[in-house]
Amino acid sequence: MWHRAVAPLGIALVAALLGLGSAAAGSPAAPPADDSGPWQRLGPLGPVPISALAISPAWPDDRLLLAARGDDLARSPDGGATWERLPAPAPHVTRLVLAAGSADTPVAFALADGGLSRSTDLGASWQAVLPAGGELSLSPDFARDGLAFLAADDALYQSADGGATWAPTDPASGQHVQQVVFSPDFARDHTLFLAAVTGGFPDFLQDHPDDQAPDDHEQSLGVLVSRDGGQSWTPASDGLAVGGIPYRHVRRLALSPTYAQDGTLFAVAWGPRDPGPLMGGQARYWSGAIFRSQDRAATWAPSLTFDSTPWRHHLFLSLSPRFAADGLALLVDDSSLVSPAQAGCEVHRTTDHGATWATALSQYSYTGCGPLAPLLAADPTPAALVDFETNGGGGWMRSTDGGESWEPFPLPDGAHADLSASQLVVTADGTLLVGARADGIWAFGPSAQATGGRLPCPAEPGPDAAPAFASDPTLQQQLGCALEPPHPAHIQEWHQLFGGQTPQRLYWTDADPGSWYTLDDGATTLVHWTELPFGWPAQPDRTVDGSVQPFEAGTLLLVPQPDGSRHLLALLPILGQYRELTA
């Protein structure tokens, strides 16, 4: 039994072919083209974070890239050498997918706040096809069968025409479909699995009421299987129990990449959440288990169990692409309670198909970790990459021996990345592409070639700002492209001493009535508000006739001063900072 009194903040664990300067068998590694070493910058250069990233399914032969950044979409046909700016299908794109379609052109999907959109012209135009967002699952044989599922909060949707049209389907009446997983051998066996549950998977602080035990582990159906391409479904939860207690509250499913040979799949499930004592009060405890089936979900048995504890464990599993032969899998255990000091992460490893597990990597207190992406084959063993978030900043660790040993693996300077499935892609040849917080996409691996292209700017800095841009390259790097020419505006300013000590200013303009900016003159920090901050007056100390110019990563104000001078005020909400210069 595993039982720990530690917990996490947030991290991502991904796996790729990441040997020291290694390349896929028969593929020479691209030579470094700049001072970033094996990491290569693909662009689009600029200060706007990449929120989602997709590559051509034929990479590296076809080097098409799509990147969601801010309110636009960037597209490169040549691996980042040139870029063009396209309108985003909807605000806040969280995932992009490029899939081989029935025609020569890949089909693109975008998940955003407004739901699911689809493009058949490489992102030049989009059609909204579903008002719901969720987890998108595409058939391994999508180019031929066009089959896809989207598991949303309210329903499960199915498409059989390449995602052009969708219809709700109800394989588990009265239950929420948590995930749909295709068999890797779907073209032959027509098999899918899904996890059906009665309730969500709340964090410790959201799991209420404290004095009542939910029954999701008993009432959930658990695992369902379809052997006819999703036309019919049957329960497949026999054995999802520990000590006779059901554990059917299934959060995730993971199929062996060699499922056609070994028929193995795993289920990450929650058990009872009974009330227990904590810090002089009461809280819902957590229990969970990893279950394994070696007979295509006909029966299940516990592979690893976690004792009842107030700590909340989030478990992420990834299997080797040669699982039938090497039995290798990695499990991330991301646990948490109330305080960041109670945060921790462990990576467990099995080399006997899940019969036994050993701890391969652990960090405790102020440490977090997260999802595991599919391991890729390497010679001789799969390699893995993990990003630990700690109160000291954390960093990436790399294993080139299937998770047995680990070493630091730093990103290049400036490539700060929030790893997630949306911002990271591992190509078929083992190249890792990461969408960073600034300066676009970075690549590592055999098909990584430095390009570092830029997007064309829609406008130029105004004449009052041009000298500052010419003399201060950092200003352009921080603001990015001008989106429009400058235009006159009434700029309103208000001053206060915060806490009676720290000078603060509040700015707002009639050009952008939904934005207020608080400037802390003691630390040159900035807070962007979409509502008037509480306690601030609606009337300014003064109103001046200046100008406003929007940029990719902020706004530039030209503010006349009482002494007749004019100041350029660069408001940088992405950085949480401001710059003030003399025009």
Topology diagram in text:
Layout: E1 12-14, E2 40-43, E3 50-55, E4 65-69, E5 72-76, E6 84-87, E7 95-99, E8 107-112, E9 115-119, E10 127-130, E11 134-138, H1 142-145, E12 148-152, E13 156-159, E14 167-169, E15 176-182, H2 186-189, E16 192-197, H3 216-219, E17 222-226, E18 234-235, E19 241-242, E20 245-246, E21 249-255, H4 259-262, E22 265-270, E23 275-278, E24 281-284, E25 286-293, E26 301-309, E27 312-319, H5 323-326, E28 329-336, E29 344-350, E30 358-364, E31 367-368, E32 384-390, E33 395-399, E34 407-408, E35 424-426, E36 432-435, E37 441-444, H6 466-471, H7 473-479, E38 487-498, E39 502-509, E40 512-520, E41 525-529, E42 542-551, E43 554-560, E44 566-572, E45 577-582
Q: How many separate domains?
A: 2
Report the total helices.
Answer: 7
Stretches where pLDDT is under 50 for at least 5 consecutive residues are 1-36
| Outline type | globular
What gyration radius follows from the Cα positions, in whole Å? Answer: 26 Å
Write a concise keyword list for the protein shown above:
42% strand; eight-stranded antiparallel β-sheet; Methylamine Dehydrogenase, Chain H; globular; 2 domains
Description:
With 583 residues, the chain is mainly beta. It folds into 2 domains: 12-444, 7 Propeller (Methylamine Dehydrogenase, Chain H); 466-582, no CATH class. 6% of the residues lie in helices and 42% in strands. It is built from 7 helices and 45 strands. The strands form 11 sheets. The chain has an 8-stranded antiparallel beta sheet with strand order 41-40-39-38-42-43-44-45, covered by helices on one side. Strands 1, 31, 32, 33 and 34 form a 5-stranded antiparallel beta sheet that branches. A 4-stranded antiparallel beta sheet has the order 2-37-36-35, with no helix packed on it. Strand 9 (115-119) and strand 10 form a beta hairpin. The longest helix has 7 residues, at 473-479. It is globular. The model is unreliable at 1-36 (pLDDT under 50).
